[in-house]
Amino acid sequence: MADQASDLLKDYQAMAQQSWESWTRYLQQQATTATNPFASVAPMPHAGASNDLLARSMAALKSYGEWLQGAASSGLGQGGGDWQHALQNLYASLSGQPFAHAFATLDSEAARSFGQMWQGWLQANQSGTAGFAFDVEHLAAFGYTRERQLQQQALAAAMREYLDSANKYQGLIQRANAEGFERLQAKLAELGSSNHQIESLKGLYDLWVDGAEEAYAKIALSEEFRHIYGLMVNAQSRVRELQQQQLEAYCRELGMPTRSEVSALSKRLHELRREVRAKAAAAGSEELMALRAEVAALKRQLASKPAAEKVTAKKSATRNSKRAVEEEVVVRRAKPAAAVAARKTVVRGATRTRK
Amino acid sequence: MFPPLRLDPAALLGEISAFQRKLAAGLGNLAHQLEPEYANTPREAVYREDKLTLWHMKGQGAPTAKTPTLIVYALVNTVWMTDLQEDRSLVRNLLEQGEDVYLLDWGYPDGADRWLTLDDYINGYLDRCVDAVRRYAGVDAVNLLGICQGGTFSLCYAATHAEKVKNLITMVTPVDFQTPDNMLSSWSRELDVDRFVDTMGNIPAELLNWVYLTLKPVRLNQQKYVGLVDILDNPKELVNFLRMERWIFDSPDQAGEAFREFIKDFYQQNKLIKGEVVIGDKPVDLGMITQPVLNIFAEQDHLVPPDASRALGRYVGTTDYTQLAFKGGHIGIYVSGRAQREVPPAIHQWLSTRN
User: Fold this and answer.
1) Which of these, B133, B109, B125, B288, lies nearest to B205 by C-alpha position?
2) Does A5 contact chain B (CB < 8 Å)?
3) Secondary structure class of A304 (helix, strand, coil)
4) Which of A64, A209, A318, A334 could bridge to A338 as Cys pair (CB 3.0-4.6 Å)?
5) ipTM of the predicted assembly exceeds 0.85
6) pLDDT tens, A328-339?
7) Is B56 exposed, middle or buried (0-12, 13-18, 19+ CB in 10 A)?
């Protein structure tokens, strides 16, 4: 049975590899064609970037395919006896990182590329000072380039700090992987004791994901993780800050507008907008307050008059109002110049009536 | 007691081959997909300012509700989660129930919006949208339906502009930002947010999406896409999947200044429940919220843990407080089948007795 399984596995591995390569090629062709209708004439300069993005998107499936292959070749399907040993084989074959892709993206998309970029800079910097037998990073700066030396030293120190924290972070991720595996084993043992069995690799994979997520969540909520996460992000910000300072100095030398200048202008514009809006709102509010005060005064005035006078005033107002409407009708029929004068009369009349 | 793994070699290879076949066969479907559309419920723009648009959503018939409901979404995603697809649309369901629905679409901030503050968002944009709805619908006060961070904004608004809010509904809204199971909160605690924002300017959506993925890295970076293989041959399911992917990753950048304030005041210092938040010149006291409040949260929410939302009941001043726990996650509360059956009718019923 073991030989038969071994042959099957070899066949499978060959087929899986062919299959993976063929559909990756297919997708890459699709992507290139889709982004560049002239691909057959002249390759686009960004075709590589497009393929890279596609590869990143498909990496989850590729990674799962590799996991399946690892599981198939670990001996998990060759007799149910020593499942723990087979599982250990699988874990070891995956280098202790069964979900390498999923966890790798924790720092690949935003941070690893950042780290790689600056690691390159750090190496270049070190190679430029290879002749020195002492620590350039902590060498006292002097001379015409003193300020720039200090900037470079600060940047190198920040980069080291970032790499240190990123390594600590990776250590926590590795611990999550290891604890996830322990949880998987515990879950399987629990299944066995309740006479339940897993009969598919997908079932095993899903259970492993559960274990991995539980272990990760526990670590990710810990004080230690919080601290290292903060260190890593803050170190990254520090590197970015120093790098921007250097870049701005170069830009100024070249007579180019800098990020901080644009940002300062944008801030001033924003503050101006807020000020204008606040003044407009205050003016509107003052007008409203004045109108409210006038209405209140009118109400008080009306309330202070004797009842009989109010009735007279009301009747008078009605008459005036009717007259106003009649006048308005006349006005609409009148010639323009007369109309304006008549309207003014009506408005004044109405105001008087209200008083 | 049985061994927990019963993996037959032939079945195992069959499973792996089936996976490869499904993947290869489904690639054609993946390669020729157009961008999936949202539900696109008919709508009319009734107010625009800078990047935002206020939409009046149109149902089949005239609304029967007297008070319009304004949906306020978070800044970190688009409001189209509430109108995702025809058969999964909170908006459509509310319209069918007779509600008069308005959506606040914040738009996509760019460098010009770098200095927008929470004051600009809440006392500015949101207030002017509420005024626009009041004018358009001819009412003194509106119902606010705030979602996630939009719920937090709605709480701040209702506490400081009480006369303009008739009823308040919060969905998956963080109130206590420091519950022990809040991973985002834990990670942000030691962040030097000043340096972070100073060096980043606006916070890129891609970076935030990456942070969200790292809350459940294996499930969200890998297991989800392994599941995709099973639906590659099902055009309807595939389009639904891709539509969700569109919504998840088509996210706006965050205005740097508002982000800085939100992280500091809400996540790092948990000021909302302490009554210490000040938006512009307006102190926010949740005790000032005396309008009826319906608080809906998801029991399996990994972004806003249930306890973070439940806390609202302890701090609002209203005597008319209703809490609704939904069995599902942060996204499922809008798009799952059960959500369609349970959530919009519950909202409508609650509103109908208070309009």
Assistant:
1) B109
2) yes
3) helix
4) A334
5) yes
6) 433 344 444 444
7) buried
